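[Solved] Which block belongs to which protein?

Original post:
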Amino acid sequence: MLVDTHCHLAAAEFADDRDAAVVAAAAAGVAAIVVPAVDVASFTAVHSCCRRYPGCAAAYGIHPLAVAHASDGDLLRLKEWLQSASAGPEQPVAVGEIGLDLFVTDPAIGRQEHFFVEQLKIARDHDLPVLLHVRRAVDRVLKQLRRIRVRGGIAHAFNGSRQQANEFIKLGFKLGFGGAMTYSGSTRIRQLAASLPLHSMVLETDAPDMPPAWLAGRRNAPVELARIAALLAGLRGIDVADLAEATSANARAVLPRLRLPGRSGTLPPDGFGLPIFPHE
């Protein structure tokens, strides 16, 4: 059983074959998929996706690269959305994707930090974990997390130092590993993947983005999580079944609302409530 803790399944890139992508993932052993929003406009699509596929879990937030077109009114919308969705079967498991991004040209860091800080406060007030975007901004993200304590979460696509990893772990966070780890030249992230405590790690695809090495330049998909898991197990020298069990337990620990087979809120046999074969 595998959990994809970060997959943009509601994105337009899956409009033509979303059912098939979900069925393929389930057949590969992916039992649950966390689907984060990126802006207020995407909230409805995320909700609809998670309503259609019971194995999917929603997260709502405003991505740092979307804040240029966001307003403080969007923060109010986020609060209202979390409140209205809190009691239904598609209740959010996290606030996300939120954070900071210093990789892009002219990142407008002040505006990014304003939206990040306000969303951390929202997550704290709703007692929800957060899904963090931390590209080239790990220390700045950690600074805010020390100021505004939330109930943990996931540092998505982690590619920092061992010291930075330890700081996230101290704050109750898990570290997300996915496609970047599959490239042979990614020596630092591979070393981290091989040596970090297993209890600190979760798996992700970030599909349709961050394709693994065998899909370079093409669309990523949640079915690839099985091969990503096998590669991580190989780096650590453990059986892939043990790796899958541990990372799924880690995902459930850091995202308490996440429903997995065999627990309260048991999913259908295929994990997603779809037929074995995709719709014609």
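(Second protein starts here: sequence line, then its structure tokens.)
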Amino acid sequence: MGKADQAARRWHKDSKIYAISSYPPKVDAQGRAPSWLYTYVSPSGKSFASFLVTGGKVKPTRQGSLPEKDIKNLVKHALPPQSKLLDSTQAVKKAPKFESYLKKNPGTEASAGLDSFSSKKPAWILNTVSRGKRIEEKVPAVSGGSS
């Protein structure tokens, strides 16, 4: 998150991250992806912005204004600091069905996303669909949490 956080703070100092996702959906069996999309909200700017990180380079991708109620909801669901979150490689190790399927089927399209909307607490959502088979696992993203 480091470079994306820096870009978001340049965009608005009060930015808060609320979602992370692999983009495009190319997560491997170790939980690595070629690019990650980080999405932030700014209460003072009444807006959101997304930053794509590929190979250590940050590129702004989308920005837009939002109604006040949406801003409040996104701030409410902001993710905790990176130091408290599992990274994608740790999350995949805690998702045995997902990890095993990708190891047995290399190159299968798979995605990973982290947010606080899909569960009561921040969670990684790992999923893949191949040959009609869908596997989805949710992994608590904060140590000791439950989704």
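Accepted answer:
You had them paired correctly. Confirming on the second one: Helices lie at 2-11, 68-76, 88-93, 96-104.
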